[in-house]
Write a structure and sequence with these properties.
Blueprint lengths: L2 E5 L3 E2 L3 E8 L5 E6 L2 E2 L6 E8 L2 E8 L8 E9 L2 E9 L9 H10 L9 H32 L10
Antiparallel strand pairs: 1-3, 2-3, 3-7, 4-5, 4-8, 6-7, 8-9
């Protein structure tokens, strides 16, 4: 029956690699489980191995794994005489943010001081902003008229 000789924690080479070596005669078929579920090979996760006599050596390769790939990885080797399996923990990245429900409850409990203003102060600030914007528009219109009116005369009486 098959026997798992080595199963190593993930190491970064070109890709992250969970190295393994399996002995068996006849040569066992290999497949992987991730947290107890069958692991499908994709362009991100793939298995590469070579058979040398009765020993299969290889890697379960991960191309830029994320925190979703963290978990328990189990190699299962099976042939006509039996099966063997072994599990190892794979940890690639930490979760980037806390749980979503915790994030929203934190935001609802904490309101920054500069955001908590009463309605009178808020309406006063809005009226100041609108007044400044109106003044800037009037100033731009006056400048445009001045440039068009006085900018047409040629300097020093020269004609173009």
């Amino acid at each position: 029956p098959p026997r798992i000789l080595t199963l190593e924690e993930p190491v970064l080479h070109m890709d992250h690699c969970i190295a393994f070596a399996v002995h068996g005669n006849p040569a066992p078929t290999l497949h992987w489980l991730h947290n107890g579920q069958v692991l499908r090979e994709t362009e991100i996760i793939r298995m590469e191995f070579y058979q040398q006599g009765e020993v299969s050596e290889g890697c379960l390769l991960f191309n830029k794994p994320t925190h979703y790939n963290n978990g328990n990885y189990t190699i299962v080797a099976t042939n006509q005489l039996g099966s063997a399996n072994q599990t190892i923990k794979g940890h690639f990245l930490e979760k980037p943010f806390p749980a979503v429900s915790g994030l929203f409850s934190f935001q609802m409990q904490y309101t920054p001081k500069f955001l908590s203003v009463d309605s009178k102060a808020s309406s006063f600030q809005v009226s100041i902003a609108v007044g400044l914007a109106a003044f800037a528009c009037v100033l731009l219109v006056v400048l445009f008229i001045m440039i068009n009116k006085y900018g047409r005369r040629s300097k020093f009486g020269m004609k173009g």
